[in-house]
Amino acid sequence: MVLRCIAISDSRICSSATKSVQVSTFKQLSAPFPCFSASWIYSKVVLLGVYFLESERRYNEAIDLLKRLLLNFTCDRRRGYWTLRLSMDLEHMGRVNESLSVAETGLDDPWVRAGSRISLFYGEDGEQCGVEELALQYYAGEEGGGWQGVHSESGIWLTVFGLLMWDVIFADVPNVFLTRFQTSPLDLDTDYFYEARKALIEPLLLKIHEGMAEEILITSYESHFETSCRGVNWNMHSITELRSVVTCIGGRCLALICRHLAQDYRSWSSGMPDLLLWRFHSDYSGEAKLVEVKGPRDRLSEQQRAWLLFYFLINGDIPILEKGYEKDPAVVTKEAISRLTYIG
């Protein structure tokens, strides 16, 4: 009886599609409530059939039904869930490449949205993840170069800045702290912040440039742990991670970044690249890399361009991470991740 209902509903869906009951574009949409149409009810029955076939481990038949749903309902918010089920069933059958292809196609489908879209990303460990996490996993592997890293955008930079410049931020400057509950001076977002503290900032930047950043960081971290300061996130990064970051970035680059933030915190506290990567060499020296994750349809903001240009000018190596190829811009694979476009 169940299989009979599935077969009838499946045939009715195909018949409805040939009569253009199921629309394919927004302009063709004839009714604002497709759930009241016969084809929508038939699709629900077919989906129940998919559940039944999956429970019986009859994945090939479930795959056929899901493919027909996706073929006949081209403008439907359920496409994300159907795509996910299809990808999973193909994986159950050992058709891994086809499963990945379905997921990649789904990422380019405008009707695959929100949670369904995120569910189509899987990392090296088979766990659900975002594309930035997927990139981190690639870079951590042998093929990617064995980098450690974080997806933090501005977060880790503002934490490092706050810790290194703590005494400057909370310096005794008139009229910038009006209550004991402030986490930063009132002028932090203004040009006055640097000008009023230039005598304090420049000697500190010189120490950072000369390689004393790690020592300053440790002292500040231990002295002010869990004290509120704008930009400093005590829960996100451990002291070990922060020490590694300042060591691998290097004094020259770190001093320049701190100078930019001190001179114009409002402008430079956003737009930083998605990923910060670092790795150590055998002599404890290190190196760092910034990676901006972008898809073919994404655009760099002007502030992102400013940060990338700034880092390129002082380091000469900025990868822009692409998520796909010209023929299929939704591809997110090792090959896509390794395709880096450099500004310069």
List the strand order in the largest sheet.
1-2-3-4-5
Supply the number of helical segments: 15
Order of helices and strands, N to C? HHHHHHHEHHHHHHEEHEHE
* Class derived from helix and strand content: alpha+beta
Strand coverage percent = 5-15%
Give unreliable regions as ranges: 17-31, 322-344
Terminal-residue CA separation: 66 Å
Number of strands: 5
| Structural domain count | 2
Shape: elongated
Sheet of most strands: 5 strands, mixed
Over all CA atoms, what is the radius of gyration? 27 Å
Helix content, binned percent? 40-55%
Average pLDDT works out at: 79
Which SSEs are present, and which pair or pack?
Layout: H1 2-18, H2 38-55, H3 59-72, H4 79-92, H5 96-107, H6 114-119, H7 131-140, E1 148-151, H8 155-164, H9 166-169, H10 192-224, H11 239-249, H12 251-263, H13 265-268, E2 275-280, E3 286-294, H14 302-315, E4 319-322, H15 334-337, E5 340-342
Parallel strand pairs: 3-4
Antiparallel strand pairs: 1-2, 2-3, 4-5
